[in-house]
Amino acid sequence: MIDSPRLIQRYIVIVLAATAACFIGWSALRPYLASPPGDYEVRQGDILLSDGKFDTARERFEAALAEAPNHPGALMGRAIALMQTDRTAEAEATFTALITLQERTLAKANETERGLLAAAHANRGILYDRQGETKRALADYRRALAIDADAVSGPGLADRVLYGTPKPATVAQRAAYLEAQLKLPAEERVLGRPARDAEQRMHKP
Q: Which of 32, 89, 95, 151 has its CB 3.0 to 4.6 Å from that of 40, i.e. a possible disulfide?
């Protein structure tokens, strides 16, 4: 039995400190423990992607895929990171894998899943666009707009602040431009507008 006031006080302090440490530890681990496999790594990757740390972001998305091989967010993040580091063949393959996966369940897809599929088509379209594959890009843009036009309507205020682009190019604007250009004689077409095209942003719901 503890009968010394000083010992009792010390005991209370130790118990409170231990409780606080346990609470802090649980709070830190809770998102990881409570999330579906891969979600925690995807959140890490998204932060790194927003910071422009593409290689490190890719590593986190690949860690997520090791936990959940068909994780849509991880596939999207990996594809974007690959695209932003000019690993175009791998980026295309990853976008295509995601699109194939999501197209299978489109009929039963919820709003988030439809938005993800639309974004995947839009991003693959941007990839094709950058490579000069205009018709393939336009096909993906059209598909994205048909699935969920709102999901690819353009970056919001946060993106404008991050990138300093007051009016970023949107999928609809780019698709309309390409459609108009393809109607012209080949010698009159201007399919690439580098300054404007560079403003296109990746879409990651």
A: 32
Distances (CA, A) of 42 to 60, 114, 115: 7, 19, 17
| Length, in residues, of the chain | 205
Give the Cα separation of 117 and 28 in Å (integer). 32
Structure-token match 């830190």, residue found: 28
The structure tokens listed for 62 are 């690949």
Q: What is the Cα–Cα distance from 83 to 127, expressed in whole angstroms? A: 7
Token digits for 27?
Answer: 């709070």
Q: Which two tokens stand for residue 55?
A: 């290689």
pLDDT mean for each 10 residues of the chain (205 residues): 53 50 48 73 92 94 95 94 94 96 88 91 92 93 93 60 58 88 84 54 57
